[in-house]
Amino acid sequence: MELDLSLNDLGDPGVLLLCEGLRCHQCRLQTLRLGICRLSSAACEGVCTVLQINHHLRELDLSFNDLGDTGMWPLCEGLRHPTCRLEKLWLDSCGLTAKACEDLSSALGVNQTLRELYLTHNALGNGGVRLLCK
Questions:
Q1: Are 56 and 27 in contact (CB under 8 A)?
Q2: Which of 38, 92, 94, 112 is most exposed by smallest CB count within 10 Å?
Q3: What is the number of domains present in the chain?
Q4: GO cellular-component terms in the record (predicted)?
């Protein structure tokens, strides 16, 4: 099952409401696309809880949202959770820097299921990329 809400003006309040429903144990959603939805780091708190509870979610697209480095901490908390089964994560053009790579690197060291991570058009720099390659 896939839900594509890309290009909608959901904002953080809309996504936080959506996350309440996605935390339901009966939710079988496998793909969630939230690209260009005017999200900030606040939305990542809700997404974190979804990653911790909904073990059916396999693909998540948060591209072209201003998540910034502060959004990576809660998102990575979700990725580190033992029940997280995410396989693909899109974070293109999310305002990330090398600081976000510290959190991502830590999460990638624990997460056993993530196979594809898209980070194009972020200011990661050589140092950030080196952190991810560890």
A1: yes
A2: 112
A3: 1
A4: cytoplasm
